[in-house]
Structure formats: structure tokens, C-alpha cells
Amino acid sequence: MLSKKSLLMFAVAIMGTSGRSMAQGQDSLVPERSEELAMSLEQLFRTAEEHNTSIKCFQSALEEAEAGIKAAKAEQLPDATASLSFSYLGGGWISDRDLKNAVGIHIPHYGSNLAVQASWAVYTGGAIRSGIRLSQLTSDMAHANAHENRQHVRMLLTGHYLQLHNLKNQERVFDENIALTETLIELTKKRQSEGAALKNDITRYELQLEQLKLGRTQVQNQAKITNHQLVTALGIEEDISILPTEAFEKETDEIEAESNWQQAATYNAPALKLAQLGIEMSKQKERLEKSTCRPTVALIAEEHLDGPITVEIPNLNKNLNYAFVGVGMKYRFGSLYKNSKRILQARIATETARHQQQAAIEGVENAVQAAYTDYQTTLTELETSKKSVELAQQNYSVISNRYQNGLALVTDMVDAANQRLDAQLALVNSRIKVLFNYYNLKYITGTL
What we know:
By secondary structure, this protein is α+β, with helices and mostly antiparallel strands. It has helices at residues 4-15, 41-51, 53-73, 127-193, 199-234, 258-268, 270-291, 335-338, 340-404, 410-444, and strands at 35-39, 79-88, 92-94, 103-105, 110-123, 240-244, 296-307, 320-330. The chain folds into two domains: 4-77 and 124-295 and 331-444, Outer membrane efflux proteins (OEP); 78-123 and 296-330. It contains ten helices and eight strands. The strands form three sheets. A four-stranded antiparallel sheet has the order 2-5-7-8, with no helix packed on it. A two-stranded parallel sheet has the order 1-6. It has a two-stranded antiparallel ribbon with strand order 3-4. Helix 2 (41-51) packs across helix 4 (127-193) and helix 6 (258-268) packs antiparallel against helix 9 (340-404). It starts with a helix and ends with a helix. The relative contact order is 0.15.
């Protein structure tokens, strides 16, 4: 889930671009984009599926996990081996039991052995079955990790996309205020020529105009930085400029109840899926350890071709062929006292996994509740910002009318314009905060 640090960084990035609290201006940070590409948020997600490096990495992990399942199932198949050896036999001798009366005997010097062996495990105490199930759970874990990573990538893209959308809206606000200020400058110059305004009044407006242009430049440069981060996360060419096309109205028209979000998290949150899979994997590892305390039974078949025959005296320089089939059973008595500690360890690991699941459930529940509350808060903030813009516009209209009639000072006009600018930028930020918290809810619940 999105950490508090990530949320704070995004909030700082959003608020840090407002016209009244920006840092000193600077020249363009990156070259002008050679190509513009209009994209919706859903198009961004599809592009990331094809090009994002992190998503590709997890796709490779999925393929590896699927190969692991096939390898585990292959353990059910019969096992066959063949061996061939050649040897040189030296001379031999025989003697009495007290090593007296030794007599040399002739042994054919060149020996050979050909053996073909086949076995098929019909009972392994559940080891093969547990191994297959463990590999399947490993695959499920890989899918859950891939889903979690995909959600993380999408939230990262959403954050950049929303910030870019926010910066474009801020740029529009600055453009509108710049155009209005330029009109006021012309109007004031006309009034000065008529003796109704002072040169200082024009200077104040020109100073305000420069501040507005500075704010617009800072917003444009920040948009270039954000665009670069966005295309890097997408894994596409860096000379492309993304143009947000999402309207976003439909996403926040109606917000579901918190209980619905909690239920969605129960079924989709990656943290809960991983916790449940952790319990199941621990159980399988426990069964795997227990299987070592059980006997193994296998069907076996062998065929041998050996020569010379040295068990006869005199030796026979001939080949001996023999074959057999049967049932073999093997039991490791040492597992009774060696594996008990491993079984206990596996049992404790399962209990630990259950505690981790409970902690994950509580963590997700708290995260959903906090995100839902933050969303409700930003909705209230949005309504407040709308009202502030309305009041700031009314105040500006009143002051402007008084100024044109010579009843207000130019400082009053500048203050009213700044208040309106602040309110407009705050409204832009509030709208993006609402969207960010909405998508953060989807991210936490695993439904983004």
C-alpha cells in the first residue's frame, strides 16, 4: 500500500507548484518535446503493461513459477538409468584361512558391466504431492506479487498523471490571469494619459505581471520534470510529451460506502492474498517435513550384463546376464530423531504466518478507513475551495468596479487579484487531491 512518505511527497509536489509558494524561477530544464501524445489514464496502464521494466520482470517470474510446477509434476514419472563400465582385472591367488599354501590363479584381465535400472515411486509419504502443491502455491505467490507490483506501477503512473493534469490546469489559470493583468495595464495606461492614474499604478501591475509569468514558467518547468518521470515509468521514448485527456468527472460522481471498499479489499488487496498464501505454503512445508518420517515404496526393474564370471574357480571368461522386477521399500530410521526439530520449526512457521495474516488484515482495514476518511476530507476541502473562488471573484469584481470609478487604490486591486489567484490555484489543487485520494482507495483495495 502507499506509504505515508509517498503520500506526503505527492502532497508536497502538488502544493509546491502553487503560484504563491514557488521557489525561484529557472530556465527550461529539458529540451522542448519533439512529439506530443494525448493519452487517457487507461491508455497509460495498457502502455505500461507492454513496456514497463518492472512489470516485465514479474512476468518473467511468472514463467519461472509455471516451469517449477512442470518440474515438480515430473517427479511423478518413472526414473530410468543406464550404466556401462570397463575395467582391468589383475591376477589373483587363493590360500588357506591362515594365509598359507597360497596359489596363484588366472583371472581374465578385461571386464565389463552393463546395467539398466528403472524405478517408479508409488508411495513417498506425500513428498511428491506436497512438492507439487508447494510449486503451485509458489506460482500463486508469483501472481500475487505481480498483481501487487502492477498496482504499485499504476499508482505511480496515476500520481504523475494527476500531477501533470494539475500543472496543466495551473498553467491555464496563470494564462488567464496574465491576460487579464495585461488588459488592466493597458487600461491603467489609458487612465494615466487622462490624469486619473499614476505611473506607480502601472508599475505595480507590471510587477504583478512579472510574478505571474514567473509562476507560469515554474509550472511549465515542473510539468517537464513530471512528464520525464512519467515517460520513464512507462518505458517509452523520452522525447514524447504526454497530454492528459482524462475528464475524471465520472470517477467521483458517486462514492461507495466504506463497507464496500473494505469488502473489496478483503477479496483483492495483494497484502491479504500474500498473507493467505504464506499460511498455505507453511502448511505444505510442514507436510513435506512429515513425509520424510514415512517409508517410500517403489516398483523396480533391473537388467545386468556382467563379465567375466569371477565367482567361479576356475574363472569363466564369459558374460552373465540376469534381470529382475520387484517392489522396493526404504525407511530412514534417522528421520525419527533428526526431522522432529524441522517439523516443529515448520509448525511454528505456520503459526507465525497466521499472526502475519491477522496483522495484514488489520493493516489493510486501517489503511482503507484512513484513505476513505481522507477522501471525504478532500471532498469537503473541494467544496470550500469552490466557495472561496466564488467569494474571491465577487470581491475582485467589487474592487475592480470601485477602482474604475476611482474609489479604490491600485493596491486594493492587486490584493484582490492575488486573493483570486490563490483561490483558483487552491481549487485546482483540491480537485487533484480528490482524484488522488479516490485512486489511492482503489490502490489500497487492489482494484486500481
